[in-house]
Structure formats: structure tokens, C-alpha cells
Design a protein that fits this description.
Mean pLDDT: 89
Strand content: 15-25%
Radius of gyration: 25 Å
CATH topology of the largest domain: Aminopeptidase
Order of helices and strands: HHHEEEEEEEHEHHEEEHEEHEHEHEEEH
CATH architecture of the largest domain: 3-Layer(aba) Sandwich
Largest sheet: 8 strands, mixed
Strand order of the largest sheet: 1-2-8-3-9-16-10-15
Structural class: alpha+beta
Helix content: 25-40%
Low-confidence stretches: 1-24
Length: 448
């Protein structure tokens, strides 16, 4: 090869990463961080006023009418900001598309968040508060009842000095996952307001009843037609959720004979199915409960006990990061059931059943997908951290159905409690990550 030609080839190879970096910065020419923080804050404050609490007792989807109301409002906003093929189906699933504006055959990327809030705490009459320029100490969010955020119950406040925080006023806030929805909707508006930002085909999806694990049952994966997806449902800055639990549910059924004169219960056929269920719950190991485990430790959780006359059902879940640990947890539940069966010889321990829900998605996420996501964060001076998630369900279900779906941070903290808050500056960093990703994926030829 001619010397000059060799030099040109070498120079092109060296400059290629810089060319990619330069293209990725084009979208920031008109970007103003204070404006983004304001938009995100305003959207979150508006969204949390929708009562979208999931309801375990309701078997239909959505499990609450507020989710449908919120879904229709989001669909209207999506249309206003240029999204196409915006739909809300009968189960309140919101889907929309943003067509590609590049000539290359770029992969289709979906961004997802969920409409519902936890069934454990009310989402009604939420009164959000915006705390600008947090001083870095403690934060009183309610005086009656007295509720205070500090570094003990909210450790990430240590890194939030100067940030804008959003809290409720003594109730659940609902930032999980309305912070994620606010990020995605602000992303959609930015692409609409700035058509110069290059991106491939994008899908937007807002799902009902994620907190109940029902989303993937009614999400039409064929219609979604995405190559990759992200749930914007994580927490802290730089968090990239790449692992999930193995998850199984269990149901234990006990039958007794309580329909008799309890004053004459001694030396009779009386059998207390409620006591059997209580003993079963008590016998499950305390050191395997959710509040006694962390990191990559699994747990056993009884989430519902229901009684109708002589029949009591105990429903729960098992979560583990390995198949071996899942086997051990199932053994603990089985042993507790067998012990109750032996103690209550007059009653009937009718059945114990297990059902697989989802598996660890770690092996379903290709390394190039994760590397590109980490590159997007680094280009925004965000240090990525691969994280094992202790709650993500939709990403795991999508990943095992052929759409690799890691989770991105959304700035939501202390979820499912009255101490919940959102850090809008972390939300803004998530927004920039989405914008970076849209440009980087536009430069990536779709795999054939």
C-alpha cells in the first residue's frame, strides 16, 4: 500500500471515535439544563396528582380507573408533541411512535415506564412539593404528621446539595414510576421541538399494573417490533439494571371447620384454618424476609392472606438471583407447609403450589447493548454502574421474549413509602442519557 494511503487509512481509523462523539454532541447545541429541570419538575408535579394506585382485588386490567384517565391524558400530550400512531387500548396500554429522521437502517428502540403506583399505599389526594436548591442537610416534608428526610432514611441526599427535589406532604408521592414517565415525555417533546436531533425509529410505551406483574400478559410484543428497549424505572444516578431476580409465586391453601359453636370447640371437629395460615406464615424464616435481605440476597414474602369461611389462602413470592437459591427458598416454604400439616391434624393443608414468573435477565442482554448504553452515560460525564435489580419485572419479561431490556435510572428514591422523593437533577441526567442514546443508535446499522 502506498505510504500516503496508509496514512489516510490510519488517520481515518483514529478519527472515527471522535467523529462519533462530535455527532453525539450536535443535539446539545440548543439544550438548556435549567429549562429541562423546570419541564421535568412541572411534569412530575402534574402527573403525581393522578390517582393510579394498583388494586390487587381487581382482576381486570387496568386494576384502577385512574390508570385509564392518566393514559388518555398522556396520549393527548404525545399527539401534541408530534408522536404518531398514538393508541390507548382497552387495558390502558399507551403506545406511540416517533419515526426515524435518518436515512440509515437504524434499530428500533423502545422506552417504557408504568402508569400505576404501589397497591400498598394510597395515591389519592397527593399534594406534591417542590424544594429548589436543597441545602444538603435535612428536609421537613410534613409537620402533621412529622415527616423528615435526612441522610439516615435517604442516604442519597448526601449527593443532592443544590438539587431540586420533589416530595409529597405526608403521603406516597408516586415518583415510581411517574418520574420515568416525566423523563420520557420531556424526551419526546425535545425531539419534537428540535427536529435537527438525529434518531432512528423510537417506540414509547406506558404500561398498566406493572406493580401487580400483569403488564407483559397484555403487551403485544409482535406489534411493539422493537430491537431493543429500556425501562426508565431505576433509581440512582448512573444505575444500569442488568440483572433481575428469578421469581416464583406460591399459594398455600388450608381448610378447617370453624362453622360451629366455638364455645363447644374442645373435643370436637373444630379446626382453625386461620390459625393454620398464621402458623405457616410464622414458620417461614425471618432472615429470609425482604426487610432482612439486600443486594443479591433472595427473599420470601407473603403478600396476601385471604379467608372465606373454612378456607384460607396464603399467597406470596420467592425471589432469588440463582437457581440454587430459588431451590433452597422453595424448600423452606415446603418445610413450613409440611410442619403445619403435622400440627393441625384436624384441619387440612390442602395444597401448596408454585408458579414461575420470570428469570434473571442477565444472559439475555447482549454486551454491545450494555456497552453503548454505558457510552451514552460517559459522554454525559455520568459514571455507569451495572446493578442487580431487586424489583424489575417488565424488563425481565421483555428480555425473555426477544427484546433485550435493561433498566435506566430515573431519580426516584424511597419508593413505596411516605418518604418517597424524586431528585429532578438526576432525572435531568437520565433525560440527557436518552437523548445521547437516540443519537448513538441512529449511527448503528440494524442487525440483519
Amino acid at each position: 500500500m502506498h505510504t500516503n494511503l496508509r496514512f489516510i487509512v490510519l488517520l481515518a481509523a483514529l478519527l472515527c471515535p471522535f467523529a462519533s462523539w462530535a455527532a453525539a454532541t450536535d443535539w446539545k447545541a440548543a439544550y438548556k439544563k435549567p429549562d429541562a429541570v423546570k419541564q421535568l419538575s412541572d411534569r412530575l408535579v402534574k402527573y403525581v396528582t393522578y390517582d393510579t394506585q394498583a388494586n390487587r382485588q381487581e382482576k381486570g386490567i387496568p386494576s384502577s380507573s385512574g390508570q385509564r384517565t392518566f393514559a388518555k391524558a398522556l396520549a393527548k400530550e404525545l399527539k401534541k408533541n408530534g408522536a404518531q400512531n398514538v393508541r390507548v387500548d382497552k387495558q390502558a396500554l399507551v403506545t406511540a411512535e416517533i419515526p426515524s429522521n435518518v436515512s440509515t437502517n437504524a434499530p428500533t428502540v423502545a422506552f417504557l415506564a408504568h402508569l400505576d403506583t404501589t397497591p400498598e399505599l394510597t395515591a389519592k389526594d397527593v399534594k406534591p412539593q417542590v424544594h429548589e436548591n436543597f441545602k444538603g442537610t435535612e428536609l421537613v416534608i410534613s409537620k402533621n404528621p412529622w415527616i423528615i428526610l435526612n441522610s439516615q432514611n435517604a442516604p442519597q441526599l448526601l449527593y443532592a446539595k443544590g438539587h431540586t427535589l420533589v416530595t409529597a406532604s405526608g403521603t406516597l408521592l408516586g415518583a415510581d414510576n411517574k418520574a420515568g414517565i416525566a423523563i420520557i415525555m420531556t424526551f419526546v417533546q425535545y425531539l419534537y421541538d428540535h427536529p435537527e436531533v438525529k434518531h432512528g425509529p423510537i417506540k414509547i410505551v406506558f404500561t398498566p399494573d406493572e406493580e401487580l406483574g400483569r403488564t407483559a400478559d397484555q403487551l403485544n410484543l409482535t406489534a411493539l417490533k422493537a430491537d431493543y428497549a429500556y425501562t426508565v424505572n431505576g433509581s440512582d444516578l448512573g444505575e444500569l439494571g442488568t440483572e433481575t431476580f428469578f421469581s416464583q409465586s406460591f399459594k398455600a391453601v388450608f381448610e378447617g371447620n370453624r362453622a360451629m359453636d366455638v364455645g363447644r370447640a374442645q373435643n370436637s371437629a373444630f379446626a382453625d384454618n386461620i390459625l393454620m395460615a398464621s402458623d405457616f406464615h410464622t414458620l417461614l424464616p425471618r432472615n429470609k424476609r425482604p426487610e432482612t435481605t439486600f443486594g443479591k440476597q433472595g427473599f420470601i414474602w407473603v403478600d396476601n392472606i385471604s379467608t372465606q369461611q373454612n378456607r384460607t389462602e396464603v399467597n406470596g413470592i420467592l425471589r432469588a438471583f440463582s437457581e440454587e437459591e430459588m431451590k433452597n427458598l422453595k424448600g423452606e416454604v415446603t418445610n413450613a407447609f409440611a410442619t403445619v400439616k403435622g400440627l393441625h391434624y384436624k384441619g387440612k393443608a390442602v395444597s401448596l403450589t408454585f408458579e414461575e414468573q420470570f428469570k434473571n435477565m442477565k444472559d439475555q442482554l447482549p454486551e454491545p447493548l450494555l456497552a453503548k448504553t454505558e457510552l451514552a452515560m460517559r459522554q454525559e460525564e455520568i459514571m455507569p454502574r451495572r446493578t442487580a435489580l431487586r424489583g424489575e419485572t417488565l424488563g425481565a419479561q421483555l428480555s425473555f421474549n426477544g427484546i433485550p431490556t435493561p433498566s435506566l435510572f430515573a431519580g426516584q428514591y424511597n419508593s413505596r413509602s411516605i418518604l418517597e422523593y424524586a431528585d429532578v437533577n438526576v432525572m435531568e441526567a437520565s433525560l440527557r442519557t436518552l437523548l445521547r442514546l437516540s443519537v448513538l443508535w441512529a449511527e448503528t446499522p440494524r442487525a440483519q
